[in-house]
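User: Regulatory protein, luxR family. Structure?
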Amino acid sequence: MIRLVPDTRLPAGLTALMAVQAGCVVFFLGDLVADARAQMGTEGASFHLSIEAVATFALLAAIGFEARYLRDLMRSKARLERNLQIASAAVHEVIEAHFTRWKLSPSETDVATFLVKGFEIAEIARIRGCAEGTVKAHLNAIYRKSGTQNRGQLLSLLIDSLMAGPTDGAPHMKTHVAAQ
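Assistant: Predicted structure:
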């Protein structure tokens, strides 16, 4: 079974943008303080100083919003990855249950697993280190034991059982073929 490893890295582009924005805030705050000190002896606050202050604090607020949004996106991504891992394990269990119910041998289980994953006969033979004829013999046994006649029917049977939800047993292939 394929194990999914959650990616907990922050998106580099967004993180870099936020770092640049934070640097700008520090620069603008320093400039704002310097301008305010320079105007301390003069009468009234300058319009320029007010605009600079609003822009600096708006940029600071934007960084806060981006950080919160990024945190929420990362949490959502982690939740989706956990759910995908659970679903993947459940699919694997359902398929393995079918293989057990059909009483497939270990070699037939290997071949059936590769078949479900979409490998061609030649690829399965190469991976398993056997002849294509051996893989074909295993496939014939798998089709016979599962009540199917080909890859399409086998996959259809497995997909139908996944879509049907939890049941005591998989639908019989003859029922499935008749429904088509």
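The two ends are 31 Å apart (CA to CA). The chain has a mean pLDDT of 85.
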